[in-house]
Amino acid sequence: MNIAIITRASTITAISSRCILAFTFALVVVVNGYADDVTLASPYEFGAHQHKVQLHTHTTHSDGDHAPEWVMQAYEELGYVAVAVTDHCYPDRTTTNLDDPGEHNIIHIPGVEYSANEENRSWNHMLGINIKTIHHKDGLHNRQAQIDRAHTEGGLAFLCHPYDEHIHRRGWDADDILNLAQNYDGIEIYNGRSYHDPGGRDYPYKVDLALMSGRRITVIAVDDFHRNPEETLDRGYVVINSNADRDTITREDIIAALKSGNYFAAGRVSPEHPVSPWFTDITVAGNTITAPIDKPANIEFITAQNNYYKDGPNYTRLEENTSTASYTASRDDQFVRIKAAYTEGDRVSYVWSNPIYVVTDEG
Length: 363
What we know:
Elements: E1 2-7, E2 12-15, E3 20-23, E4 27-32, E5 39-42, E6 49-57, H1 68-77, E7 82-85, E8 107-116, E9 122-129, H2 143-152, E10 156-159, H3 174-180, E11 186-191, H4 202-212, E12 218-222, H5 229-232, E13 236-242, H6 251-260, E14 263-268, E15 283-285, E16 288-303, E17 317-328, E18 335-344, E19 347-352, E20 356-359
Parallel strand pairs: 6-7, 7-8, 10-11, 11-12
Antiparallel strand pairs: 1-4, 2-3, 4-5, 5-20, 6-13, 8-9, 9-10, 13-14, 14-19, 15-16, 16-17, 16-18, 18-19, 18-20
């Protein structure tokens, strides 16, 4: 078996016997030379530590009920290592800023929820993460400018709560996912405040649509915290894989993991639901993916052949009540993403992997 582990901050090139694979991942594991002319590109390299990070919160600087200092302290007490404060940027109605509020001992990530258009209405919300300036050229046709600015500043852009627009005008219809913005980094697969079913079709189908179109994206789960902390904190988050411990991890480490996809997303409807399962590793050997988790759950492998967009909710393979599951990818899969659902009584919690991409000799 020929395994090449490649790290590079820009475009990564892996040479196999039949193709040249190029991806803009910071970390890609490439396994070459297996049956069915399949190469798997995985973002995963699990380290000695896993860290919870919150990427979507609001404070009294926009429409939240708690001061930025309170929000940071609350997540610190819950064991998070970092929080992005992402207040709305409604013109004339907020005091959104990117300053670290202080009075905490965790990492602050500057962010914003791009929200308002020229008519001061809500439309196609999007997170800017690790940005240096708030790009106020907002509106229905200006999301691309904000994505480009975030990338120029070393940041990321994630599409928020991708409702269909017939449900709420701030959503992302299928046409928006494909045509309104390009080269966004990812999509919220779970948003705690938007009250969708985290095990249902509505948000995951947007993820699968984007993946089937050939986009290279990741998924995040978030609280979208505004108020009522006893009911709304710690519902959705991402878990960063790192060799750095809590005392030594830096914001740069976290942003690198977000850019490379070396993390997973977890979510539950409320703090009364069981703690979400966590992946303890995700490995690739040949064209087989193996995903162990920390407690028995139903594990789905979702691909371009069977997914939440085309047939949803649907999957190519399901293994029930297991602590580890494997899937052998084929050339028709295009991507493989993994979802696990853990149940206690009638309450369920979830974990979602980032996609592992399938590359054939056609590219």
